[in-house]
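Dear Dr. H.,

I hope your travels went smoothly. While you were away I took the liberty of generating a structure for the chain from your last submission, since the lab meeting agenda had it listed for discussion. I wanted you to have the full record in hand beforehand rather than looking at slides cold. The sequence, exactly as received, is reproduced here:
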Amino acid sequence: TDQLVVGRTQITTMQLSAGFELPALNLVVLTEHELFQQVRKKAPRRQLLSNAERLRSYNELNPGDYVVHVNHGIGVYEGMQTIDHRGVKQDYITISYQEGAKIFIPVTQLDLVQKYVGAAEKAPKINKLGSPQWARTRAKVAKKVADIADELIQLYAEREMRQGYAYAPDDDTIRQFEQAFPYPETPDQIRSTAEIKADMEKRQPMDRLLVGDVGFGKTEVAFRAAFKAVHENKQVAILVPTTILAQQHYDSMVARFADFGVRIAMLSRFQTAKQTKQILADLKNHQVDFVVGTHKLLGKGIEFADLGLLIIDEEQRFGVKHKERLKQLQTEVDVLTLTATPIPRTLNMAMVGARDLSVIETPPANRYPIQTYVIEQNGRAIATAIEREMARGGQTYYLHNRVEDMEQVVSYVESLVPEARVGYVHGQMSEVQLEGVLVDFINGEYDVLVTTTIIETGVDIPNANTLLVENADHMGLAQLYQLRGRVGRSNNIAYAYFMYPGNRSLSEESEKRLSAIRDFTELGSGFKIAMRDLSIRGAGDLLGQSQHGFINSVGYDLYTKMLQEAVALKQGKTKRQTLTDAELDLQVEAYLPSDYVPAGPQKIDLYQQIRKATKPAEFDALAADMIDRFGELPAEVNRLLVVSYIKSLADRANIISIKQDFKIPALLHVKFAEKAQLADVDWLAALKPSRLRGSAVSASPVQIDLVIQPKMTVDTWLNGVQTFVASFVPAEEETDEGDA
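The corresponding predicted structure, in token form, is as follows:
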């Protein structure tokens, strides 16, 4: 380009190495806000995926990763390359197996390959190509999956049998409450709210998981569900892991429900014994509509007059005893669980359909990615980060997770930045002290707050936009992500520094966690973090320890696919239309050239999206997305979209293969499954506008040969093939596949 765009803040800190020369460019200086607004215009469009697919789609593939090929077993992904085969270029992915054997998989078969995720963090056994071992493994897992499917069906049946309260559809009061929301809703907030309300209006109790990034508006969705319950004279309880979060939720609730007569209370250690006793009496007598609390809400003395909805914020923060008490509460009430990074077990339950799932992945307006650095701890970097934040009038969190020497750390920070006003908080302080320091920090009395992980959930201070974390290598991935979510909650760009001591070598698992938190900085990364956590920690236990060996032997994705198919089979749910997996061998260049889309995870992701698309609108959206991101589509990419659409039509048209004759390129062989009825389709009429000719040459299996006219362009010919194949696709039945 002929312009160099530089953010104004970066200019002051940019270090140019000796000898670095700027070419003769027009220098355009933008503010950070302007720069990110321009970048966001190029953000990819939303994918049309189901909620569970949306989570799974974040499992990125990188060279060196273990992968599972449905037909060949577990191998190592070595990357993607463009190969010239018979004079036609095509992209292939390479997978290596035992004894140096390799296979090259065309991108048209990318759906047969999945990233390997086991039930525990250990390397899988790589298969041997051509060995019957993989087939035996799949057969063994299929038998056991059938038993687990029985348990899942029983779980579904128990949920269906439970009787709860069916709410009435929304009325004007509910609509008035929603219109009072002072910010524009995101599309995902609207869709998730609709999914939750639909559950509440059913007789069966709701058990829905709402997954959304930190600060993406899960709380407002929960408040709308709560108001629906309160509006029908039901009580609502919201369970949170920390006292600070309880206080912040309480303040938000009081402000949000102020004009609607909702009686609100809070139960935490901030209340005196007398206040707690009064609140318990009010809950029992229905003098309170909406209560927020910590684990105190799970105490034995708690009695509700008519509990209708239980909202659980960050379920993974509660212990085993708390969860047992939750199970007792959940038998007949609607339950909504909120999380930014679901733990592997929760994610697993949602993937296989044992829990309903809603996803919020649209960021609010004017929110920017958090600039994330993983560095060796040193005083100079700490001082620079704090001084830069102070220079723009902002505040800094300094996380030190040991109470006993916290005052020494305060002195250390003061020595690094003498002009900084430094305060500190930790969980062993009294509620009066804790609240006092936090209020002072919110009011700008301190520049730096030294804190333990007590701020992990709930502290929402928009002016604090730099985070420094000591000993980050000792923390879990979801915890690191939650901590990073404490900054970047305004329209200022935020910075997060995850530090590790220079005198300590990192474990392999710590390196993976820190690498993941550094890699996933863009908005909406919570799902990627959850999937990476699934990779690092394993899928966890769904219905029993017996599953672990099977998940390890075939990988998580293939296991869940086999389980879903087994459940559908036992429930008597057959697919609306049996699809073939047509093999296309057309001598046309249809791929993503490396000078258009560079090799890497985004290229794989695009191929996966193209492979999943089935409808013209989906292909149009993909084309528009690529034009936005990479520029006008080259001829090869246009043909890739057409060939992929022909493949999706062929799958529905009962076609096994479409192959161009290598010796006679003007001849195309189309082979159908045995049950194809050519008499039912006027395919000869379909050929007329396309200038193709054809004849039925075989009845078993059914085969048609298409003759390509001389001097016909490739694009005209492909359109003719598309028209021909489309004539065999049965008319689509009306469906109500809700969240696709």
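Two observations you may find useful: The chain has a mean pLDDT of 78. The domain at 371-521 is CATH 3.40.50.300 (Rossmann fold).

With kind regards,
E. W.
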